[in-house]
Design a protein that fits this description.
Helix content: 40-55%
Number of strands: 26
Largest sheet: 7 strands, mixed
Shape: extended
């Protein structure tokens, strides 16, 4: 073995080779990365790893035989036996060259397949891998007939012929010689040696023993490759067609441009561009904005009129120039007129109206005031959205409403960059264009319903909009130039503040809108909803009337809500039924009262709250707050013989259960005062229950109710049936303040309660209680539980 480039250290004496023949099927090993050898295949590769270089040297010292096996992972530097495939090839080294960069280039010829049974590493200064192998023979005959094998050979030739059509570098002579091959084994080898397959696929082919299985697997692989090549070919054809089409369109546009210039049609386009320039100069825009728009107009003048880019620039210029850069609405502010508008559009909501009038007064004193952003928070149907419209009317400003419910894409707020197809500005810029003035009132409805996803967080974009220190230079992605939003009056609405991010909530002044009381609903229905629905249904006031008791019946028996939407729907239903009766000529007018409403709307949907109607032992009228108003919640206590267990039922929450434990401890403390058996906590079981067990209940305000019920049940003293109470308690018997007093007292008034016990610290909250309730109910202010029990128990 001798070449001009071969290093002397790799030259081996031919006589010594015969003396060092590989014995017991033990060979040096080269773990191959990404290469699979086959018997009869001549393959060359570079050897870099030191262990592989030493293995080549060792093989040359012996009989030039070396075992070649592929690695499972090409990135493994020092493989162990589990990192190698089990089947490899015993090959004979034909040539070894050493390149100038100290890399061995080896040429080998596969001899036979073999199975790796044991891998070891020969240590020393020239460490290398050595493998014990077991020869693998191909099965002489597979389980198939000659006819099946012939059919498979034909199928493989057909699919290879299709494969060769998509491989331009494959010589026609080579393809023809392969297709003329009749021996199945030679056909397999000739195809595998000349096609591009992954080393994993080639390893699968190497591990097959019968020629039928080899050809079957090869057919499947070729079929898959042909499908991939077909798709690649289609993609390439589409790209070529697209490029050809673009070139053709460009050529035709240039021709059209030349023809237009000859005919003089190009003058209209030039006139349009000049019109853009005149608008930019006349609008007195900020210098940065004017410069940007002028550049866009210059770009437009250099483009063909019918090109796609010219349409994009035109749309951009039309959008930016339609913004109200210098247009403002001159508002004439009159506080009394504003108060009149608010009172006409909304009944009640006195605190909200007062805060709005204060804001209007500030605008009158300082028209350029910024940073006043109001967030109206309250349950559905209480008039949050309509209040925004009323404020705009009272200020004389243009009104725009932006619904944020379900918005989860930042581009809805900031717009899309104009480089995208179909790009458009965000909702805020669109609202400014629609308003036509730079100081409108914009209402962001349902700001608590925004969410986020992979497209961005719209609530983060709102931080800049609702910040008076930043929104004077708001940049929409589409407009790309700063626009001043500082003169816009922003109002937001929400059902809850829990889902509004803290930084966004911090930028707004929250005004709470509570649920309407029964009396407020009555006035809203009689003064607003009935006239409105009469008009919408084409009825005259003389054709339909709803008596006062009829309206109260609608409120109490057919609706249970914080607002008045369902109440309005029921009134609309009565109007429709009236219209039907009149059109049918059965009557010319209808009057609805509490006695005949059920004939038209069906039976009552809701019943009165349960309450204690007489003085009883262990039964107390409590008061609770819900999202749709206050309710009367009777609480029962029963003392039984037992072992001191406390049973609590009625879907009571953890806080109410803790109140029950406090009540037991307090009862033990005052047992002697109320003649209670001091050992009751050992000898009796106490059962506490709140009716409507399917409705979850929780909160600390039932503390005084539990203590009163328990003292009554243990002492046998009756509780007054015309008394209701609310308040949190401590172990020492102090009564702490609670919330929702306005709604709770209205519920008690509706049910005919004459006396209400409330915490003394809630006395200032009576200002919020409905005037009718204050005039008809006796309030007892309790500082301690002694005050509660003196009033509630029939001593």
């Amino acid at each position: 073995m001798k070449t001009d480039n071969m290093e002397s250290e790799l030259t081996v004496d031919e006589n010594s080779l015969s003396e060092t023949k590989s014995l017991n099927n033990v060979f040096p090993v080269i773990p191959m990365r990404g290469i699979v050898a086959f018997p009869h295949l001549v393959v060359h590769f570079d050897v870099v790893r030191e262990a592989s270089v030493n293995a080549v040297k060792e093989a040359l010292k012996r009989d030039r035989k070396i075992f070649i096996v592929a690695q499972k992972d090409v990135f493994t530097e020092e493989p162990v036996q589990t990192d190698l495939y089990k089947i490899g090839v015993v090959a004979e080294i034909r040539q070894v060259l050493k390149t100038p960069d100290n890399v061995l280039r080896v040429l080998v010829e596969g001899l036979s397949k073999a199975k790796l049974t044991e891998l070891s590493q020969v240590s020393g200064s020239s460490a290398y891998y050595e493998a014990k192998i077991k020869p693998v023979k191909n099965s002489v005959r597979s389980k198939c007939t000659d006819t099946e094998l012939e059919a498979l050979v034909r199928s493989v030739k057909d699919i290879f012929e299709r494969y060769a059509q998509y491989i331009p570098k494959m010589p026609d002579e080579l393809a023809a010689s392969i297709l003329c091959q009749t021996d199945p084994e030679l056909l397999f080898e000739n195809i595998v040696f000349n096609i591009n397959l992954s080393y994993v696929d080639k390893q699968d082919l190497l591990e097959q023993s019968s020629v039928f299985n080899k050809l079957s697997m090869l057919f499947a692989m070729l079929n898959r490759e042909v499908q991939v090549l077909q798709i690649e070919h289609q993609i390439q054809e589409q790209v070529k067609e697209s490029i050809g089409k673009s070139q053709r369109e460009y050529f035709l546009r240039e021709q059209m441009k030349a023809i237009s210039e000859q005919l003089g049609d190009d003058n209209d386009f030039k006139e349009e561009i000049n019109e853009y320039r005149k608008k930019i100069e006349s609008m007195k825009l900020p210098e940065e904005t004017a410069s940007r728009l002028t550049k866009e107009a210059d770009r437009l003048s250099k483009l063909p009129e019918a090109s796609q880019e010219s349409f994009v620039i035109r749309n951009y210029l039309d959008t930016v120039l339609s913004l109200p850069w210098n247009k403002e609405t001159r508002s004439k502010i009159n506080i009394e007129k504003a108060r009149e508008i608010l009172n006409k559009d909304h009944y009640g909501l006195e605190k909200v109206k007062e805060r709005i009038l204060e804001s209007i007064a500030v605008h009158a004193m300082k028209p350029d005031v910024t940073g006043q952003i109001i967030c109206l928070v309250g349950p559905p149907g209480v008039g949050k959205t309509s209040i925004g419209r009323s404020i705009a009317k009272s200020l004389g400003r243009k009104y725009q409403r932006i619904s944020l419910g379900g918005v989860k894409d930042e581009s809805d707020i900031r717009g899309h960059r104009k480089t995208y197809v179909g790009a458009m500005p965000g909702r805020i810029i669109n609202a400014m264009i629609a308003a036509g003035t730079k100081n409108p009132l914009i209402l962001f409805d349902e700001i608590d319903k925004m969410s986020n996803d992979f497209r961005g967080d719209p609530s983060s974009a709102m931080l800049e909009v609702l910040d008076g220190e930043q929104n004077n230079s708001f940049v929409d992605h589409y407009v790309e130039v700063p626009f001043d939003l500082s003169k816009v009056m922003f109002i937001t609405t929400a059902n809850t503040t829990q889902t509004i991010p803290a930084p966004l909530l911090d930028r707004m002044e929250v005004i709470e809108l509570t649920s309407y009381t029964r009396e407020e609903k009555f006035h809203i229905a009689s003064e607003h909803l009935v006239p409105k629905q009469l008009k919408e249904n084409g009825l005259k006031p003389s054709m339909m009337k709803v008596s006062d008791d009829g309206i109260y019946t609608l409120i109490d028996s057919y609706t249970r809500e914080a607002g008045v939407r369902n109440l309005e729907r029921n009134i609309a239903s009565l109007c429709r039924k009236t219209a039907k009766e009149i059109v049918s000529e059965k009557t010319n007018k209808l009057t609805f009262t509490k006695d005949n409403i059920s004939e038209y709307l069906g039976h009552a949907k809701y019943t009165d709250d349960e309450k204690s109607k007489k003085d009883e032992v262990g039964l107390v009228n409590g008061l609770a707050w819900t999202s749709v108003g206050g309710v009367l919640m009777p609480l029962e206590a029963l003392v039984l013989k037992g072992k001191g267990n406390i049973e609590i039922t009625g879907s009571l929450g953890d806080v109410m259960k803790e109140s029950a434990k406090i009540a037991v401890s307090y009862s033990r403390n005052v047992a002697e005062k109320y003649s209670i058996n001091p050992e009751f906590y050992k000898e009796n079981d106490i059962h506490i229950h709140a009716p409507e067990g399917a409705v979850p209940k929780d909160g600390p305000s039932a503390g005084v109710t539990m203590v009163t019920a328990m003292i009554s049940a243990l002492s046998g003293i009756k509780v007054r049936g015309d008394v209701a109470m609310t308040g949190e308690i401590t172990l020492h018997g102090n009564v702490l303040p609670i919330g929702g007093l306005r709604e709770k007292t209205m519920a008690a008034y509706k049910e005919g309660i004459k006396t209400i016990i409330i915490p003394e610290k809630n006395k200032p909250d009576l200002e919020d209680v409905d005037k009718t309730v204050r005039e008809n109910i006796n309030f007892v202010f309790a500082r301690t539980l002694d005050d509660v029990l003196k009033t509630a128990l029939v001593m």
